[in-house]
Amino acid sequence: MQTVQKGQQIICRLEVGDELITELKYLAATLPDQLGAISGIGACNDVTVSVYSPDSDSYVETRSQEQVELLSLSGNVENADGKISTHLHASFARLDTSVFGGHLERAVISRTGELVISIVPLAVGRILHQPTQLQVLDLS
């Protein structure tokens, strides 16, 4: 992954074979006590997304190892007290133009990936939200 930063904006270009989440966590390790809001596009050939099912109280995974376009990536990466976490949603298009998406679990770049990260200089961690049992942003 190549990056350039100006002020609170980071532009990233991911290379063939880069795993998107791994690269984001590597970058976040260099930005202590900050949160990054992420937007991105690209092309991938090994993708896993999941969607939460309230009925089963679990995530249902979908994996694709075909060539797909990353239509939209949004979410955040945070480094709070050295603990790095991501919360990313993505949508992908298959060659037949059908679309699938959800929580991004894995995405390997097949051509290129282009990300814009807006840095927020706050250490925002995560806490367990009792009513939903989900890890949510700790804004206290």
TrEMBL record:
Task: For this UniProt record, give its keywords in alphabetical order, as a comma-separated list.
Answer: DNA-binding
SUPFAM superfamilies membership: AF0104/ALDC/Ptd012-like
Q: Do the record's keywords include Mitochondrion?
A: no
Keyword DNA-binding tagged: yes
Segments forming domain PPC? 4-140
- InterPro entries from the UniProt entry: DNA_bp_PD1 (IPR025707), PPC_dom (IPR005175)
A molecular function (GO) held by this record is: DNA binding
Note the superkingdom of the native organism.
Bacteria
What is the name of this protein? DNA-binding protein
